[in-house]
Amino acid sequence: MDALDRQIIAALRANGRATYADLGRKVGLSASAVHERVGKLESSGVIVGYHAVVDPSSVGLGVTALIGIHPTDIADDNEVAVALGELIEVESCYRVAGDESFIVKVRVATVDDLERSLGRLRRIPGVARTRTTVVLSTRFEGRPNTGDEDDDVT
Amino acid sequence: MDALDRQIIAALRANGRATYADLGRKVGLSASAVHERVGKLESSGVIVGYHAVVDPSSVGLGVTALIGIHPTDIADDNEVAVALGELIEVESCYRVAGDESFIVKVRVATVDDLERSLGRLRRIPGVARTRTTVVLSTRFEGRPNTGDEDDDVT
DNA sequence: ATTGAAAACATTCCGCT
DNA sequence: AGCGGAATGTTTTCAAT
Q: HTH asnC-type domain location, by residue (chains A, B) (predicted)?
């Protein structure tokens, strides 16, 4: 992984649909060289995937909440994680340090759905209680941070 | 927004680099029809963007933390939000209900960097104190949830 | 709003450096 | 590891429906 790879990654984080020709122009390489590098970045697991980002309320998911999961004394974290993964409304799941074992982000259509979702969460074996923080607005989300200074990616 | 649009959105969430021809085959439309629909979804703000997802530790950002921001009595939330946005390590920023005004997700290289970042956060005018939850592992993150049942997107 | 055709463009493979 | 050429496939525009 050299500076060129990092530039390519930054460009693909900014625009996941950039063509190899575009990327080549940006970093000063031929399209085929970029193609080869991106292929290696993908198969080595640096680039995990490409996703369209959708405005949640446009797809009927206007309610977001961050929920801390308190485990029971005998909880198996792995089983809890699997059960959390089975709930479609759980968008992200973090195993955390502290007296909560997980923090999850859920997206649902309405507060009624949130209530139902909390019911499902609490019914998971190993979950003692939940602590819910409702998101009022998302200022920004998933911003690219390449790890170093230069972020001039148009 | 009809069922076809939703199918296209789901496919682009699963694979942000799918070609219009691919999408057309998947939903039973010509590439040009898909092109037109996607263009409308983009300009109407349903599709916000396309991003490559990168393994954070591969780009030297192995430490993730979720940080609650407690405001001072006289804090201006908007000013705090702007200041949070200026910190490159703050990847996401949610305005929340409760006694914390924001919850942010930060990604840094090391716990030393986390300490420095917390210093920067606390120095923001309007920030009284922070509550930090260190992420031990990310089980999953940013999973697509189309809002309804069928999620059979290969 | 969708199509099919056509031109421009991008991808992808391969031999060469 | 990168380049350029060539074949194939895709994007993008447009007239027609």
A: 1-62
